[in-house]
Write a structure and sequence with these properties.
Blueprint (H helix, E strand, L loop, with lengths): L3 H11 L20 H8 L7 E3 L20 E6 L1 H6 L12 E5 L7 E3 L16 H4 E2 L2 E2 L12 E8 H5 L10 E2 L1 H10 L9 E5 L2 H8 L11 E2 L4 H6 L4 E4 L17 H10 L2 E4 L4 H10 L3 E5 L10 E3 L3 E3 L1
Parallel strand pairs: 7-9, 8-10, 9-11, 11-12
Antiparallel strand pairs: 1-15, 2-3, 4-12, 4-14, 5-6, 7-13, 13-15
Helix pairs in contact: 1-9
Length: 316
């Protein structure tokens, strides 16, 4: 693929959801998650087994400072030593600990909000980017607008285990619609309207084994640009991967940068999760053969934010 500009324009026009839910919409593809869908997803809890799908938020994370993305800095403002020394000023032996954290909102397991990516100066639903996201934050589609919405049926597509070698896809592997379909068939699971799809490539497992290397921003397996039609046609609510950037890297067009993001977020209104940890969940799914589960993954309601850290919980 060589002509990114033309391909992006064609896909944006073919798979746009602008106006689908009205001119004032702020939920995008989360409109596909109905109350009935949430009720149905709750019935998937049979054993009560819980799996956190989050990486740890600490200084040993994958970030290397690109575009000022750093790993979290955790600082104690009160400690046990302060309490033991009696310097906290509390009466009758009372003591405590407090702490603070500083971090980019997309430094580890996170959601991309609808104000995160623009297409030729347009934000989700055709809004002018300059009037949607300003120095005051995302004035329209801030991540707080979906704080009570990211709950429903989760489906794991373990492409790494089905298509890869030893459970992993190599860096630069482009996951096509055919790969996604074959994986769903192998798992005996169907993708349906309103699902939150979790795609495991195995890259995170490799990074943990071999070191972070270029995990943040470097070569990676991921979705092919050609899956744009599948993402639109399946009417999924959201999709998350265990990689830094969701789509295959290097990108499939010469000189391009994240072209599938450019179609999916501002044009489809699709929510994208990145750097999720599916390892424990994938092992359990392989054991019990069930690749669907109740998933709760609400963002922190940070007013005006274009992304958010998240601790997704899958319950089976």
């Amino acid at each position: 693929m060589t002509d990114a500009e033309e391909a992006i324009a064609q896909a944006a026009a073919a798979y746009s959801n602008w106006g689908r839910w009205g001119a004032d919409d702020v939920l995008g593809t989360l409109n596909f998650v109905s109350d009935a869908k949430r009720v149905q997803s709750a019935t998937l809890v049979r054993r009560g087994a819980c799996f956190s799908l989050a990486q740890r938020f600490d200084t040993d994370g994958p970030q290397k400072g690109w575009r000022r993305r750093t790993n979290p800095v955790h600082t104690m403002t009160d400690t046990g030593a302060d309490a033991a020394l009696g310097t906290q000023g509390f009466p009758h032996g009372f003591g405590g600990a407090d702490d603070v954290i500083a971090m980019p909102l997309q430094c580890s397991t996170q959601w991309d909000g609808l104000g995160h990516i623009f297409d030729h100066g347009k934000a989700w639903n055709g809004r002018p980017a300059e009037r949607t996201v300003t120095s005051d934050g995302d004035l329209v589609t801030g991540i707080e607008t979906i704080a009570d919405r990211m709950v429903g049926r989760g489906v794991l597509l373990d492409v790494g285990r089905v298509i890869g070698t030893d459970g992993e896809l190599p860096d630069g592997f482009a996951i096509t619609e055919e790969h996604l379909t074959a994986t769903a068939t192998a798992h005996d699971v169907e993708i349906s309207t309103g699902d939150i799809v979790c795609v495991r490539t195995g890259q995170l497992a490799r990074a943990r084994r071999d070191g972070w290397g270029d995990y943040a921003g470097g070569p990676a397996p991921g979705l092919s640009f050609t899956t744009a039609g599948w993402l639109h046609r399946t009417e999924i609510a959201a999709i998350a991967t265990d990689t830094w950037g969701f789509e295959v890297r290097p990108n499939e067009f010469d000189g391009a940068f994240q072209p599938l993001h450019q179609v999916a977020i501002p044009n489809m209104g699709l929510f994208i999760g990145e750097m999720w940890d599916f390892e424990a969940l994938a092992a359990d799914c392989a054991t019990d053969g069930a690749y669907e589960f109740f998933l709760a993954a609400p963002p922190l309601p940070i007013t005006g934010a274009v992304g958010s850290p998240v601790n997704p919980i899958a319950i089976k």
